[in-house]
Amino acid sequence: MNRPKRTQLLLFAALLPFVISRQSGAQSWEFAPYRIQVWYGGELLERESGLNREAFEAALTMQGRVVAGATWSLEFGDVPVGIEPDLTSAIESVSTELVASIVDPTPEPEQGVIKQPVDKVFLLGLTSKKSRLIWQAREFDVRTRTWSDVATVQVSGQSAVIRGAFQAMSNAFRPVLRIESSEGREAKARIRAGGLVVRPYSPARVTEGSIIQPVIRNNDREGRVRENGIEVVEWTLGVVGASETNFVPIKLHSAFANPLGVRSSRRKQKLALVERRRYESTMLYLKSRDEEQRPMAGYEIYAKDPVSNTSKLLGVTDWRGAVMIEPQEGMPFFLVLYVRNGGKLLGRLPIYVGAHQEVVANVRDDNRRLQAEAFIDAIEGNVLEMVASRELAAARARNHIKEGQLDQAREQVAIIRSLTTPDELRQRLDREQARLAQGQERPDERINTKFSRTKDLIGKFLPRNLPDLLATEIESAGGK
Fold this sequence. Notes:
Helix content is 35%, strand content 29%.
């Protein structure tokens, strides 16, 4: 064997384990089912359905096989200590830390290899209201340590109990994607269990146009999530593009230029959860971006279709800083909201109408800018009046000097001295600038720039030594 071929074979042999490992990681992500732990309660279950626990679990497992196919692997367990057994009144208040401590994922040596015992946890509770049974389901995603909103399904009759329980779980379920690359507003992601989806109605199915919420998980060196290591990327949503495989393009819409930052690694995993519409509308609350969290009233909210670029005014925030975002005729449920105040654009907020009952956006308190502009407009009006008054008095004084009427010239100088001085105007500006800066974490450069320009204007058109110059001219004329 000649030397070049031998070198090529050795290189191939060295790279082969790496290639196999990468392919194995992708396959285990795409072809391993979601391992789902179901914790359920409800004293009404056996009485209303006639099913004991074993029969209920068997029936729910069968329903899962029919609808979700191989994408779901259901496991059942008793409600852990520390959570109310009936899981009805307290389903929204279950602690993230408590659930995570029970189903905390084990370290993953290689990103993408499924080695954690549980992917999802479902809390499932049954209650009754006016002779109707109501299933409540809430999903906890173990990797991202995030909760879904509560999904509710009303059922009537024993035969609908199993179907209703599964429907509630399906409505709460959020498929997961692993973001493998991103740059600016473009990303590529791989769909979890995507290779097992064969039914169009599978809850694990991710389609073109699906809306995703990116989440960044920060791990320690052992692969466990760090304290405060979960970052739900705020005001950033993605739209899944067309693909014939489970590796799909993502178009990101965000309030930020580069929302996903640095590339993924074992220490920093970029994931995404598919959003589901559960409500008819979404209430948006605008609050100030400071410690006080003041409601931002009177802000205009515009909606823009990111595909057609058509836009319309949705409304103005009320005294609570709130405005209802409802589906718009001729527009999709996914919109980009534009926040404006006083003619200024303050933010672009992507939103999936109906995915959440209410959302809160912290925006820059633009009322300070408007107050600054109103104050500066008043000061600049004073400056114009003072320039006119000073120039008129100075012109009269110089005419009197030419005619030798020095006493009348001194009267005009006295008039100039009686006007507000440039130093007094600067002091007013300094006091107002300091007042507007109170409670701010950092200086507002827009406001500071406006004040600086006004001070420069005063120095240029209101020279402080004008009365002294005229007085000198009068004294010189008197000595002639």
